[in-house]
Write a structure and sequence with these properties.
Elements lengths: L43 E2 L10 E2 L45 E2 L3 H10 L8 H7 L9 H4 L19 E3 L11 E7 L8 E4 L7 H10 L4 E4 L4 E2 L2 E2 L9 E4 L2 E10 L3 E10 L4 E10 L12 H12 L8 E4 L5 H19 L1 E2 L1 H8 L10 H24 L1
């Protein structure tokens, strides 16, 4: 008898190395989106089974319901290493029980450097802080789910919560005309300072301007381009000259292009009220379609321009990207933290993010986004300090 053929064993590929969590904005190529750890609870909501996002799946459904403003990083599963003889103790408090204190401004840079040096096993890196954020409370989205409002939603599973949605005044004989996919977000110390909303669709452009008029908005922050390749991200909701949306006439008065952003000035009028309002739109055009900004100079200049425009008696600031979640959430946290620095001399990103995630689904989508906030805020503060010294 011949010897039995031995089955050849296939070589086991070496595990792929994951990117170290903790590189800063200056030396971290955000736009390349390297492998990082992410919280599966913020991957992609299953719109078919639960549009509110209570159930999640790792692969998007065949019918795309959500395109994040920055693509989801590649996730590499890392097998747990054998326990060391003297393992590093990690804090047990997570989620709702986690405690994170505000950071004094004088300690902020050192705080970031320490976070970047520590690993996930240490229990003190940015990833651990992000995972400490409790899962957002699931609120009802019954109005956004109505069949009559379906076409007004750009993404089927990004809906405003009933208790924080912007309620429009109903139009005559139109019972569902009070709906717009927009949510109130509290500021650092000012209730409803922001309105986070999606990029308008063709059927919701009129509602956008109705909301701007009703809420006495004087500042719109736009964080997406109209298209990303062949994919539409936002309908062009403003005129090149003068256009009437519903009963609101919008006229473009001025348009100035800067390095990385455009500022447009409009006047709004309703014939029956015989008065004009001024609205300024700040459109950031330098955000790459496939990631986060590589460097912060253009974004810092943009934030500065937005904050310098402070008309008296204005209502909430409207902030939108395509979904009204990713980039929108990043900008709101940055703006709110700059307010806190001005008034208290400290920064409380973790607790503000925790509160904001309870107001609109999907804001701050990954640990990478969370760390990006710290890096950008630090660079913004440094830029402001340099400007003051050179003045």
């Amino acid at each position: 008898m011949g010897k039995p053929n031995k089955e050849k064993k296939k070589p086991v590929p070496a595990p792929r190395k994951t990117a170290a969590c903790g590189k800063g904005l200056k030396d971290y190529p955000y736009e390349n989106m390297p492998p990082v750890f992410v919280d599966d609870s913020v991957v992609e909501p299953d719109a078919k089974n639960n549009p509110d996002g209570a159930k999640f799946k790792k692969r998007p459904p065949k019918k795309e319901v959500l395109v994040y403003d920055t693509p989801r990083p590649i996730v590499h599963k890392v097998e747990p290493k054998a326990q060391a003889a003297n393992p590093v103790a990690r804090p047990s408090a997570t989620g709702a029980n986690a405690v994170h204190e505000a950071v004094p401004l004088a300690q902020f840079e050192d705080y970031i450097h320490k976070k970047k040096k520590r690993t996930y096993r240490d229990g003190n890196g940015f990833l651990k802080d992000y995972e400490d954020l409790p899962a957002p409370v699931k609120h009802a989205c019954s109005v956004g789910k109505k069949r009559a409002n379906k076409e007004k939603n750009r993404y089927a599973n990004i809906l405003p919560y009933d208790d924080t949605r912007v309620v429009l005044e109903k139009l005559p004989n139109k019972p569902n005309s009070d709906y717009v996919n927009a949510s109130y977000i509290d500021g650092f110390d000012e209730p409803r300072k922001y309105i986070a909303t999606q990029g308008p669709t063709k059927v919701s452009v009129d509602d956008m301007w109705r909301m701007v008029w009703q809420e006495n908005v004087s500042k719109i922050v736009m964080l997406t381009n109209l298209r990303d390749g062949v994919k539409e991200k936002c309908d062009k909701y403003w005129p090149d000259d003068t256009t009437t949306y519903g009963n609101i006439t919008v006229r473009l008065m001025n348009e100035v292009e800067h390095n990385g952003y455009i500022v447009r000035e409009f006047t709004l009028a309703i014939k029956s009220q015989k008065r004009l309002r001024q609205v300024c739109q700040f459109h950031f055009t330098a955000w790459p379609g496939d990631g986060l900004p590589k460097e912060s100079a253009k974004l810092i200049e943009f934030i500065k321009a937005v904050r310098e425009f402070r008309p008296d008696g204005a209502g909430p600031m409207v902030v939108h990207c395509s979904t009204g979640t990713g980039r929108t959430g990043l900008f709101i946290v940055l703006d709110a933290m700059l307010d806190q620095v001005e008034k208290e001399g400290r920064v409380d990103i973790w607790n503000f993010t925790r509160s904001m995630r309870d107001k609109r689904i999907g804001v701050i989508q990954s640990a990478l986004h969370y760390e990006f906030i710290f890096d950008t805020l630090l660079n913004t503060l440094k830029c402001a300090e340099t400007t003051v010294k050179s003045a």
